[in-house]
Amino acid sequence: MVVDDEPLAIGLLEKHIQQFSQLDLVASCWNAVQALEILNQEKIDLLFLDIQMPGLTGLEFAQSLQNPPEIIFTTAYRDYAVESYELNVIDYLIKPITFNRFFKAVNKYFDKIAPQPSVSPSVAPPVNTPTTSSEENSFIYVNTNRKYTKVLFEEVLYIESLKDYIQIHTEREPVMTKEKISEFTSQLPSYFLRIHRSYIVNTKKITAFTQHDVEINQLEIPIGISYKQEVLNYLKK
Q1: CATH number of 133-236: 3.50.50.60, 1.10.600.10, 2.40.50.1020, 2.40.50.140?
Q2: Rounded Cα gap, residues 28 and 158, in angstroms
Q3: pLDDT tens figures, 158-208
């Protein structure tokens, strides 16, 4: 459900939501009173809630709910960020909301409601792959030709950069999406390792390695010169 007193803001969020087959827009409301009526009638899982509204603000409305749905705040002001996160919301979006930023917020929601796999404490994080919110999650949705395809991390063999696109090679079939490999790296669990300017590998799938490449079954993937020392140090551990 979308709650916002600005028609343009509602229209933009509705347009973004329509891009996700996994999201079903139940209603769009102008104020907290209308939103409460719908919450009493319908099961709402995710609420896009404007903060600065006449009457009851989004923060006050969220605080008044006994069993609130997951919330993503939307606002033109940055001043409420700290207070909003105290409510344990999914995300805090600054207007005008770009689709790229909206996509990341929705991915956080999918990550939160996904089943959590067990994580082995013996796996050390790769030195060049930062820990992210995807660390303990099992999948990601990627934009593939106007739809969002679910990719299970455990099925990914390696990821290849093709200029402004990346190709995710899985045990089933490759998945291509328009994204830079440097930006995609931060969305992966810690056992993914960038070994070359054009390649990220799932270290759980590596069957052998040398000073110059890693092997995944019969496939040889080169180790870049600038990545060599860090990659070999990690793999030898």
Answers
A1: 2.40.50.1020
A2: 41
A3: 999 987 889 999 998 899 998 889 888 888 998 999 999 999 999 999 999
